[in-house]
Design brief:
The chain has 17 helices and 19 strands. By secondary structure, it is an alpha+beta fold. It has three domains: about 85-205, Dipeptide-binding Protein, Domain 1 (Dipeptide-binding Protein, domain 1, Alpha-Beta Complex), CATH 3.90.76.10; about 230-300 and about 525-545, D-Maltodextrin-Binding Protein, domain 2 (3-Layer(aba) Sandwich), CATH 3.40.190; about 305-520, Dipeptide-binding Protein, Domain 3 (Dipeptide-binding Protein, domain 3). The two termini are about 50 Å apart.
């Protein structure tokens, strides 16, 4: 039996005290869960009695899982679980919160950001994640050969736009610097009100560049990919399912309660809804339109405001939509209330404007329904009365019953009001995105969900040759106004500039045809906890848990 003398007891007490004080001295504040995040931890342990396997329907197969390349909502839902940026967004308020960076400093003039990275942030294979990884990832986004449609998200950074446009010989001239192994410095060219929101956006997530160089496009496959988010990819079977599992090397793994996530790609929403009713799916962020009257009575149904605009794009590079009078006629010939009140019927707002109200920005009114003026414009464009001699045209949309019904209603209105014939063609999501990028369409269904809480997210994409422009439209006045808005520090004046830009889009030039402002609707099983309503439909799964 071990005997303790008073002397030995004091000796061990001194050793323990020394160890305790030393641990405090060298304790890493990055490891401790911050108070704001503790609020999202389950208060009871009841969740432990239930299998933590979350299942949802994503509506399609992802185009890719490469953060630098993806542009759609279905992809971003997955990428946000696999990867993490320097900054996260609060699941309830959408405020910027620490991510890989546990803190940051902003200079008094707002032009310099210093991000301090967690030393315990790692890749999913356990290898270290450093400031150099962000440097290389952001450099990859800005390298033209990468083909990142969202490269312009980094343009507020000094020299970034010039490097992307091949007007800067070396990346050394870009304001992204590795100050130390776990410190990244970023210098902006002008004050950017929403820069931290941009840093939280998926394009600026870190990627394993050395792995990409080795496997090229195949690096996102389950057998190759490594990531740094709360979950990692374990299975990807196209047109069947994607499976994610908890990443045990994630710095904040203690808050993650889900062990597994299964993602279905069903574009047939009725099929997905039947699975939901059988408790085989926990969440559907889109519902079958033909079942709406039934679903709205279901206790698991939800509907809320959404920062999103549903619209059509015109290919302005080819006849007949290279003529602004034709584009304007097609816009004036639609009574949008028919779509929202008689087809969608969930509170969507008919919109002749493009940007939803955001922050304190108020969109311009646009042009009201006027079929007589629309007919007159077609005559002025040389197509005669009742669309005589107007060529057959086509609307391209991705497979969805809702998109189909909206398109059918629009085709009927154009037939009645303009006398033109329009056909419909549907295709899968990945093909639609490819056709959109290559301007392989006449009219194409589209939508835009705000990437951050500033009107700029709805306007900067239509700059000449912008990666998300996808209309072929170019306007020098619009480009100049965008630059002016980026230099302006007064929000009231910025919003006035945005209104000028919006008038160009939907009152004068019409490269797009706005239809309605989204609502966020779906069904969520009552066993799901940690899911919060917000206008961007962002629900980080690391905060989700299942509990009966």
């Amino acid at each position: 039996m071990l005997q303790f003398t008073k002397h030995k007891f004091l000796k061990y007490t001194e050793i323990f005290t020394l160890f305790f004080l030393t641990s405090l001295l060298f304790a890493d504040p990055q490891i401790e869960l911050p108070d704001w995040e503790k609020a999202y931890v389950p208060k009871s342990k009841n969740w432990q009695a239930k299998e933590q396997h979350f299942i949802f329907n994503n509506g399609t197969d992802p185009e890719s899982l490469d953060p630098a390349l993806v542009t759609g909502v279905p992809e971003s839902r997955l990428v946000a679980e696999l990867f993490e940026g320097l900054v996260n967004l609060d699941p309830k308020t959408l405020e910027p919160r620490p991510g890989v960076a546990y803190r940051w400093e902003i200079s008094p003039n707002g032009l310099t950001y210093k991000f301090h990275l967690r030393k315990n942030a790692k890749w999913s294979d356990g290898s270290e994640l450093t400031a150099h990884d962000f440097y290389e990832s952001w450099k990859r986004v800005l390298t033209p050969a990468t083909g990142s449609a969202y490269a312009y998200q980094l343009f507020p950074v000094k020299g970034a736009e010039e490097f992307h446009g091949n007007r800067l010989d070396s990346f050394d001239g870009v304001g992204i610097k590795v100050a130390a192994k776990y410190t990244l410095n970023v210098e902006l060219k002008t004050h950017c009100h929403y820069f931290l929101d941009l840093v939280a956006f998926h394009t600026l997530f870190p990627v394993p560049v050395s792995l990409i160089n080795k496997y090229r496009d195949q690096w996102v496959r389950a057998k190759h990919i490594i990531s740094n988010g709360p979950f990692r990819l374990s299975t990807w079977k196209p047109r069947q399912r994607i499976e994610l599992v908890k990443n045990n090397h994630y710095w904040g793994r203690s808050i993650c309660k889900l062990k597994k996530i299964t993602v279905f790609p069903y574009d047939n929403l009725d099929t997905a809804y039947q699975l939901f009713l059988q408790n085989k799916i926990h969440w559907m962020p889109a519902i079958p339109l033909e079942k709406l009257s039934e679903i709205i009575r279901h206790p698991d149904y939800y509907v809320m405001p959404y920062l999103g605009s549903y619209f059509y794009r015109f290919n302005v590079t080819k006849a007949p939509f290279d003529d602004v009078r034709v584009r304007k006629a097609f816009s004036l010939a639609i009574d949008r209330r028919i779509i929202t009140e008689h087809i969608l019927k969930a509170g969507q707002q008919p919109a002749t404007w493009f940007c939803p109200p955001i922050s304190s920005y108020e969109p311009v009114p646009g042009l009201k329904y006027n079929k007589d003026r629309a007919r007159q414009l077609l005559v002025e464009a040389g197509y005669g009365v009742n669309g005589r001699s107007f060529p057959n045209i086509e609307i391209l949309y991705n497979t969805s019953e809702q998109h189909k019904k909206v398109a059918e209603a629009i085709v009927q209105q154009w037939k009645n009001n303009l006398g033109v014939s329009v056909s419909l063609r549907n295709t899968e999501w990945k093909v639609l995105l490819s056709d959109m990028d290559n301007l392989n369409f006449q009219i194409i269904r589209s939508s835009w969900i705000g990437d951050y809480g500033d009107p700029n997210t709805f306007f900067d994409m239509f700059v000449t040759k912008g990666g998300n422009n996808r209309t072929g439209w170019s306007n020098e006045e619009y480009d100049s106004l965008l630059l002016e808005s980026q230099r302006e520090t007064d929000n009231v004046k910025r919003y006035q500039i945005f209104q000028k830009m919006e008038r160009l889009l939907i009152e004068k030039e019409f490269p797009i045809l706005p239809l309605y402002i989204y609502v966020n609707q779906g069904v969520l099983n009552e066993s799901v906890n940690g899911w919060y309503e917000n206008v961007r439909d962002m629900h980080p799964l690391k905060y989700i848990w299942l509990e009966d």
